[in-house]
Amino acid sequence: MSVKVSTLDYENYGKCVCITNGVIEVYVSVDVGPRILRLAFVGKDNLLYNDINRISNKASEGITKAFGDGAEYAFYGGHRLWASPEDPVYSYYPDGDPVEWQQTEFGAIFTAKPQPVNDVQHSMEIKLSDGQSLEIFHSIKNLRNEPQTYASWGITQFNPGGIEIVPQVEKFESLTANRIISYWSYVNMDDERIHYGKDFITIKTHPTLSRLKIGFNNACKWSCYVNQGTAIIKEFDYTEGGQYPDFGCNYETYTDPYIMEMECVGLMTKVNTGECATHREKWTIKPVERMPSFTDQEDIANFVAEYIK
Question: What CATH number does residue 150 fall under?
Fold first, then answer.
């Protein structure tokens, strides 16, 4: 396998790094972020949402007080790295500075500038494998002269219009609880965008409905979003009995009229000075000839058997 790395200007994000194996390609911003802004088969449509017009930028009195006059957070779209649990101020550090990057044999490492106030430094290493997959290794270093506790949290924004498949836990014990589903405070539990089935939970986007976010202890260690004729499969780790944020969630999903987010969360970690909280994700994209059903569990199972497992 030959991986090629080059630079280019992309949309209104400035300089980006293109990593490709000739089958798939990713673009990563290095003038801001970093963000993975493009995921696609070579020459095909981008699967990731790009906030070209910066409609989701966030400013608040708290952000200004923490980070200075004029401070504003830009989501930019695509894939980003945060520390979990989310904080209404400190999560929104304005990461609009240039990013250091270094080419490797199979991709590149991207390291953001240290974040003052938060006293952390984010980095992502991207490795392309054969065919249609890539791996992302996320790392958040503690720069404070005392321990901090947080989890590494990868958040990926995809274009709306698809269906997400989250497998239900496969471990059954007759007398004890075997799964966690966490709901955010703004969620209506009978939201029409969620369907609960025996084997799979499905989530879809809607052009007018507002925010929806739920989280899971996803012991199956995968999820899938189907859109634009493509199945986007995420694989990630789960530690039985491990401490995860948001009442025990290692996988979370969010949607609004503009995006579908797939979010993978690492273990809550007491991070000593100079050490890192980490997590790994594997992404695979596959062309598909049909959409899965939103409600029919047998059809979803057939789709999973055909395209995912």
Answer: 2.70.98.10
Q: Give the pLDDT confidence of 128-161 residue by residue, as tens digits.
A: 987 999 999 999 999 999 999 999 999 999 999 9
So what's the pLDDT on residue 177? 86
Token pair, residue 239, equals 């530690």
> pLDDT below 50 — which residues of the chain?
none
Q: What range does the domain containing 28 cover?
A: 4-307
Number of domain units in the chain: 1
Task: Find, among 108, 104, 76, 103, the residue nearest to 92 by Cα.
Answer: 76
Please tell me the predicted confidence (pLDDT) of residue 129. 81
